[in-house]
Specification:
The protein is an alpha/beta fold and 560 residues long. It has 18 helices and 22 strands. The chain starts with a helix and ends with a helix.
């Protein structure tokens, strides 16, 4: 209540905040939810509901985080610089300018995109402009009430655990009102402390994406319906599709232009069918070969495939495996597959990637969830002078990347690769569904599913912690009628048989069952939910589906 009253007296810059604070004066639960903690800052930066309070995304939490970042950078470099990008979300442009204004007041040069721009272009700009860090104001695929603040290191990757800890230490020294320096945006711009990133930087980014194409022949004759889901993807994705010669691209009109309210898709996530509904309706009229959908910050890409007039949604795991096979197969056919090729995926992505990689002699590395860890592997290869060995990385949540020009997932790159892959099979008289079925017949039927358990508010965070503690202390002996044959605790870095896990510590639990199924449980790093990843492998689709359905019924009970 003391902090609430302090904000009532101080938070005047944004009139929306004063109005919100006054509206909850007689509601202690709402006050508690906004002030019971500071919005968590970690390797993903900040992400939270837009609004007033220390546990919300607003100009004050953004300024405080930026002041902490500025203090950190000035200890590392005499003349630091930061690149800034933002997406279509509510207040994204305001937050990005506030961040630039704080950096400028601290003598840190801010390079800011003049209009909303995809997250991968931020990763590109950090390295292209030789910056010490990057900020992307985005909440990715979260609902409209959220916004976020992602921080990148000088390598174009999201910040390391150590850098996150060091920046957090600086943030925690600050009072949100007294200790933040800021100058007017236009004044900082006039003094050269804020510079606008020129269009040629985006042009060079697209040239780098083009450099990742698998073949040079145009995708003429391929018909595509595309939706940017009211986000940042429209300009870059339509440009890259034109550059590779896609014959016809129809953009979903209701979702073509930026709209942070996401009125036609309350959950702007290409993993969710409802988000693609407008695109699917248009596909029924246009009858394209493919529906492409990119999330609001254009780092994830989902698809639906025209299979005899019916549009089939493909999962992130399926598209990841298809692209891995397509890239390795095509480059082998062309003689461009490097010696000792490397692909990278995550511990929660499909096990099917393992036999596919082995078939082509590709070393498959598995890392923790989060594309930053895939980016780390690219950086390690580059450091060893072997950057060319990296051919592809993917995660099950619709993130893909085929080159080291950026260090984050890139839906512009993914859109290009998927269209080239569709054209490759189209010339053979096949669809991507046909190609996927052929892979299933070759390697077995791998089925995967994701269950989400949401926990809102202060009580929700406490409950999430209790669930993970309980599972850690009392591992289930059986799941869905099959004995648990082994487990891995990524927090303690140990397996049930005493083996050491050679990955950074993470709050993740994995249970392996005697029937070959697997359950992985982890709290989301970006949303108030616990995720359960289910996987099964059978000799037929019917068998693998039955195993997954059994897990779907059983896992909610162990979450109690």
């Amino acid at each position: 209540m003391n902090e609430y009253e302090r904000w009532i007296k101080n938070a005047l810059d944004d009139p929306d905040l004063a109005e919100e604070l006054n509206s909850i004066r007689d509601n202690p639960e709402e006050i508690s939810d906004r002030f019971y903690r500071d919005l968590a800052f970690g390797t993903g930066g900040l992400r939270g509901v837009i609004g007033a309070g220390t546990n919300r995304m607003n100009v004050y939490t953004v300024r405080k985080a930026t002041q902490g970042l500025a203090n950190y950078l000035k200890k590392q470099s005499e003349h630091p610089a930061v690149a800034i990008a933002y997406d279509s979300r509510i207040k994204s442009d305001l937050f990005s300018k506030e961040a630039a204004a704080v950096l400028a007041a601290n003598g840190v040069v801010a390079h800011i995109y003049p209009q909303l721009s995809p997250t991968p272009t931020l990763s590109w700009a950090v390295r292209a402009l030789h910056c010490d860090a990057g900020i992307c104001v985005t909440a990715s695929h979260n609902p409209a009430k959220y916004n976020g603040y992602k921080v990148y290191g000088s390598d174009g990757c999201q910040i390391t655990l150590k850098m996150a800890d060091d920046v957090l230490a600086e943030i925690e020294k600050l009072d949100v009102f007294r200790d933040v320096r800021r100058m007017e945006y236009d004044k900082a711009k006039a003094e050269g402390l804020i510079s606008v990133i020129p269009d040629e930087v985006t042009d060079r980014f697209l040239e780098e994406v083009m450099g990742q194409r698998v073949f040079s022949e145009p995708c003429d004759g391929l018909k595509v319906v595309y939706t940017p889901l009211n986000g940042t993807g429209r300009v870059c994705v339509t440009r890259i599709l034109k550059m590779i010669g896609v014959g016809e691209v129809t953009v979903v009109p209701e979702q073509e232009f930026p709209d942070g309210h996401f009125t036609t898709c309350p959950f702007p996530n290409p993993e969710i069918r409802e988000a693609l509904q407008k695109g699917l309706e248009l596909c029924g009229k246009v009858q394209p070969d493919l529906l492409l959908a990119t999330d609001p910050d254009c780092d994830r890409c989902g698809i639906a495939v025209n299979q005899n007039g019916k549009f089939i949604l493909m999962s992130g795991n399926e598209v990841g495996v298809l692209l891995l096979d397509f890239i390795a197969r095509s480059r082998k056919e062309q003689g461009t597959l490097p010696d000792c090729p490397v692909a990278v995926t995550t511990i929660v992505s499909t096990d099917m990637a393992t036999p596919v990689a082995a078939h082509y002699g590709v070393e498959l590395r598995r890392v923790l969830t989060g594309f930053k860890y895939i980016g780390d592997q690219i950086a390690l290869l580059e450091k060893d002078g072997a950057a060319q060995r990296y051919i592809f990385g993917f995660e099950e949540s619709y993130g893909y990347l085929s080159g080291g020009y950026v260090r984050d997932k890139d839906a512009v790159n993914a859109s290009m690769l998927i269209c080239q892959m569709a054209q490759y099979y189209r010339r053979k008289g096949k669809t991507l569904c046909d190609a996927m079925e052929a892979l299933y017949r070759q390697y077995g039927y791998y089925e995967n599913a994701l269950l989400n358990f949401g926990f809102e508010g202060e009580d929700g965070m406490i409950h999430m912690g209790k669930i993970m503690d309980s599972l850690r202390k009392n591992a289930p002996a059986e799941i869905a009628g099959s004995s648990v044959s082994g487990w891995s605790d990524y927090q303690t870095s140990l397996t049930s048989d005493g083996q050491k896990i050679d990955l950074p510590k993470s709050n993740v639990l994995e249970y392996r069952l005697e029937n070959g199924c697997k359950v992985i449980i982890r709290p989301s790093g970006t949303e108030p939910k616990i995720k359960a990843y289910l996987s099964a492998h059978g000799s037929s689709k019917k068998e693998s589906l039955a195993l997954i359905e059994a897990l779907k019924k059983e896992v909610p009970s162990i979450m109690k």
